[in-house]
Amino acid sequence: MSAQRNLLTVAPATDHRDLRTQHLHADTVIVGGGLAGTCAAITAARAGARVVLVQDRPVLGGNASSEIRLWALGASAQSSNNNRWAREGGVLDEILVENTFRNPEGNAVLFDTVLLEKVSAEPNITLLLNTAATGATKDGDRIRSVTAFCAQDSTRYELTAPVFCDASGDGVLGYLAGAAYRMGAEGREEFGELFAPEESYGALLGQSIYFYSKDVGAPVRFTPPSYALPDITEIPRWRSFNTAVQGCRLWWIEYGGRLDTVHDTERIKWELWKVVYGVWNHLKNSGDFPEADTLTLEWVGLIPGKRESRRFEGLHMLRQQDIVEQRTHPDAISSGGWSMDLHPADGVFSAHDGSSHLHARGVYQIPYRCAVSRDVPNLLLAGRIISVTHVAFASTRVMATCAQIGQAVGLAAARCARDGLLPADLVEPERMRALQRDLLRTGQHIPGLSLDDPDDLARQATLTASSELRLAALPADGPPVPLDRSRAQLLPLAPGPVPRLTLTVDVTAPTTLRVEIRTGGQPDDYTPDVVLATRDLTLDAGAAQRIEVDVPATLDTHRYAFLVLRRNDDVSVRTTTQRVTGLLAVAHTSTQEADPAIGRPRVEFWTPERRPGGRNLALTIDPPLAAWPAASLGNGHPRPTARPNAWAAAPDDDRPTAHLRWAEPRRIARLELGFDTDFDHPMESVLWGHPERAMPFCVRHYRVRAGDRIVAERTDNHQTRDTVTFEPPIETAELSVEVVASHGATPPAIFAIRCY
Q: What is the pLDDT of residue 397?
C-alpha cells in the first residue's frame, strides 16, 4: 500500500498557490539567446564569469534558428561588396566554421545542434530555454533582478547579478528597466542623415516568414486554407514567384512596417501566413507551374523573422556618417560591413523595390559606447537593439554583426563583474585598451586594430622558418575565363616599383586590350578606384599568347594592388588551380553611382566568384612576391589586411616549420595558433550550400616540438584558432610548429603563433 500511495499526489484545496520559484545568482544575466546573446554568453563564460542565459524559445539562434531559418550574414555580405576577408571572427567564426564542417548543406536543424552544443559545453552557463523575462526590479537606477517564467516546467525564476545584458531583439529587459529607447526613423535634420526615409517609405522594417517545398516524386494536391490570400495580384511583384525559389531567398515576403512591430507581431504573423499560403496556392493551382505537380509544402515558419523594433539610447549613437566615412573610434570593439539596407514599410504589398541599399567603401568600426545604456548603469546592449539611428541600424541589424557585438559585450560583462565596475567605466582609455586586447586575443575582428600583447612570450622570441614563399609564378593549369566583364587579380605588393607581370591569353580576333594597375585610397581599401598606370596592348588572334605588363607604377607602402584586365569580348585569360593564402581574383560586377542627395558615394564592386570557381589568374611575377615572411606570425593581424599577414613556406619545402627561439628557456603553459579558414568566404549558416567541409587553406595536421621532443600533435584540425595546453607547462628555449598537411591548398599557411 505504501508503494502505491507514493505514486499519487493529493493536494487539498487552498485559497491560492504560488508558482515554484527558483533563485539564481550569476556574474551576468543575459536575456535573449539569438546569435548575439549566445555569443555573449559563451564569451563571458570562457572569461570566467558565471552566466545565466535566458531564451524565450525552445532553441537558440533567433532568426538563424530552425524556427525562422534565415542565414547568418554580416560584413562579408555573400561576397557582394568590396569587404575582402571580412567575415566576423571569434566565437561566431568558431560556430560558422564548425557548422560548415558538419553541415555544408545548410540544414537549419543541424545548425540548432551546433549552437546548443557550444552553449552546453560551457560549465559556467546556466541555460534557461522556453523562459521569458517578465519583470525587472531596481535599486535606484540599477537593475537588481530579473523575473522570468518557463511555461514548460511552470517555474518562476528570480535572477540577480551585478551586470545585465539585453540581447532580446525587442529589448524586453531594457524596456522593463525603463531605459530610454527609440522606435521608428529619425528625420534627416536630427543627425544630418541624407538617407533617412521619407514618411511615404515608412519608418520601420517589417517581418518575414519563409517556406520550404519538397519534391515527393508523385502528384500532390493542395487545398488552400480559407485564410489564404485569395488574389495573388494584390502583391505588386507577384510575377516574381516561382517554384525554384524558397526559404530565405524569399526575404521580401515581408509585412508589418506600418504596425507596432513589438505588440502586433501575432497580427503580422497571420498576415504573412495568408501571403505564404496564397503564394503556394498560386504555384500549385494556377496551372502556370506544371513542375509544381509533385511538390509538397514541407515547412512554413511558425513565427516571423523580425527585423526592427526598439533601439536603445547609449553613450553614443552610430549614424550614417560613421559608416559612410568609415570613422574611427577609440573604443572600437567590433566591425560592420553590410550595406545600409532599408525596406519599405509596406513590404510585400509595396510598389517600391524590396530594399534600398547604400554601401560604404568597406568595413567600419562599431564603438563600445553604442552597447552601454546611457541611463541604466549596469545594463549592456547587444544585437539589433544597440544605440544607432534607424539608418545606421539598417546596416548593424544583420546577425553576424549582432553576434560580434555580443562577443564584445560578453567580455565587457565578465570584466565588470570581476573588477566591480560598471559598463561605462570601461570607456576609460587604459581599460578600453585592455578590453580591446582581450577581444583580439579571442579572435575578434576590429578594423584598424592589431594585437599588441605584452603577455605573449612569442614577442620575445626570434621568429624564423624552414623556408618562405617567394611567388614567381602561378601555373596556367586552370580553365580560361572570358573577359565578358573586367577582371582583376589582387596582388600583395611591397613599397617600390610594381613588378613585371606576364599573363596568358587566348584571342579570337585582333584587338586592343587595356590593362591597368589600380589600388584603393587606403592600404587596406579594396575599392580599386585609384588608377596608377594604364597600358593598351595590341593583340593578334591566337591561343596561349603571353603578354607582358611592365608599367612605371610605384607604391609607397605595403598594400594590395589590382592587376585589371578591362572587358574585351575577344579575349579570355588563363587561370590557375593553385590557391594561396591572401591571393584572390575578382570581377567588376556592378557600380553604385554617387548620389549626393542621399549621401551615397560612388563605389565600383569588384567581387570574387565562390569556390569551387573563383580561380586566380595564371601569371609570372618578376621579381617574385615575398609577401609571406615568418615575421607575419607575430604582427598581430590574423587575417589579410594591407598584406596577407601569414607565413607560407616554399612549395618544395617537404617539412615546412616555423621556429621560435629565446635567449633563455621560457615556461610555456599554452600555445595558440591562427589558421586560414578563408575569411573571404561568407559561410552562410543555413540553406546556402558550401563546396567543402573544411577550408582548403586551413592546416589540418601539425606537430609541435620543444627542441627535438614532440610535445603536441593535431591530426584533424579544421578550425581557425587552435589552442594547445601543456599540463604541466613546458620549459624550453626553442619551440617549433611543423605543418604536415592542409585541407588541400599548397603551400599551407599560418597567421599567428602566440605563447603564454
A: 98
User: What does the pLDDT look like over 11-51, one tens digit per residue?
Assistant: 999 999 999 999 999 999 999 999 999 999 999 999 999 99
How far is residue 88's CA from residue 60's CA, in Å, rounded to a whole number?
A: 19
The torsion angle over the Cα atoms of residues 173, 28, 443 and 435, rounded to 10 degrees, is: 100
Domains and CATH numbers, the chain: 20-185+308-441 (3.50.50.60), 207-306 (no CATH), 457-467+629-755 (2.60.120.260), 470-626 (2.60.120)
**What is d(CA 28, CA 52) in angstroms, rounded to the nearest whole number?**
7
Neighbours of 740 (CB within 10 A): 15
Which grid coordinates are listed for 641? Answer: 589586411
The answer to whether the CB of 194 falls within 8 A of the CB of 409 is no
Q: Give CA–CA dist 170/178, Å, rounded.
A: 14
Residues 501-549: pLDDT tens digits? 999 999 999 999 999 999 999 999 999 999 999 999 999 999 999 999 9
What Å distances lie between residue 679 and 96, 396, 582, 599, 695, CA to CA? 11, 19, 10, 29, 10
Q: Which amino acid is at 333?
A: I
Grid coordinates standing for 76?
562579408
DSSP letters for 270-330: HHHHHHHHHHHHHHHHSSS-GGGGGEEEEEE-SSPEE----EE-BSS-B-HHHHHTT---T
